Amino acid sequence: MECDFLFGSPEALLGERKWRERLQTPEYQRKIKLIVVDEAHTIVQWGIGSKDEEPFREWFSRIGELRSICPKVPIAALTATSSASQRRTILNKLCFSKHSEVIAESPDRENIKITSVQVPNNEDLHTTFGWLIDGL
Prior knowledge:
This is Helicase ATP-binding domain-containing protein. With about 140 residues, the protein is mainly alpha-helical. The chain has a single domain (about 10-105), classed as 3-Layer(aba) Sandwich (Rossmann fold), CATH 3.40.50. The chain is built from eight helices and two strands; from the N terminus they run αααβαααβαα. The protein has a two-stranded parallel sheet with strand order 1-2. The longest helix has 11 residues, at about 125-135.
């Protein structure tokens, strides 16, 4: 299989035997240059259950197993919505060393505006959001 990018969920890459075995082959080990965990805050949100409940998605709690499957491949974790506490949990779950570099920049941008509008239940959505739909 020839590809430049491989996208997969923790369930697929870790939970499915065929992918787990494929990732461990010398061919894949040579080709994988970087593992990117996008929306890494979901590790905390979905991979950690409460004291009485199992995690919503078990494989998110086991995502650090990628380190043992691909030990020489660097991992980048991306999130724009995690707190400092959540970042520590993410680093721990992904088995980052204490010397790993964390770049924590505010996602706040001057050119992006977030607006909240309360819409009456009986109002037509096109009346409220027509300008937005037309702009797309």
